[in-house]
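Work through this protein:
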Amino acid sequence: MSTKRTIAKDLLSIGAVFFRPDEPFTWASGIKSPVYCDNRLTLSSPIVREDIERGLAKKIMEEFPEAQVLMGTSTAGIAHAAITGYILDIPMGYVRGGAKDHGRQNQIEGKLEPGQKVVVVEDLISTGGSVIDVVNVLRSAGADVLGIVSIFTYGMQKSIDRLKEAGVVNFSLTDFDTVAEVAAEEGYIQPEDVARLKKFRDDPSDESWIRG
């Protein structure tokens, strides 16, 4: 079985993916979504957690073998960066959403030397804005950001365009289409819902999918 399908099955098995095509979730951006993915739940399942961290480690070794430091996104990427860093025996740190207003006023936590080759660890990619902010903070500190690894991506065109414009590549363990297809196969959703879900993915601003 492919890694994409394995991780999709894992996420579905622990209830980390919520489907509500008839009563969509509203994201902070205002986008209405038929799917909500809560990858924080993966940390509570040793079996799923093992699949994910081994998968992230393998992806880093394959795509970024020269990586010297892992940097997790705050907060969801921190634990995954820590565990994956342990597996690979390389340092890790994380990037805060903003600089602290006390102490050393750090935004980057952990040791990072200018010129070090960094991989960002993220839990999911939606529109791509927050992870690109992290990349920019690291670049401003002198890091050579090799790319991003993540657990899940919605595969939205907006995120694809943003990542390309920022000159950074992302490799996800699984994606929206795979999760939707596996969910239909295993009875989490109806087969006819897959087309609605993909219509949302193609153009989140077009809410006609809500009406079926």
User: Anything to note?
Assistant: Helices lie at 3-13, 46-63, 78-88, 129-140, 157-166, 176-185, 193-202. Strands lie at 17-19, 25-26, 32-33, 35-37, 69-73, 92-95, 108-109, 117-125, 144-153, 170-175. The longest helix spans residues 46-63.
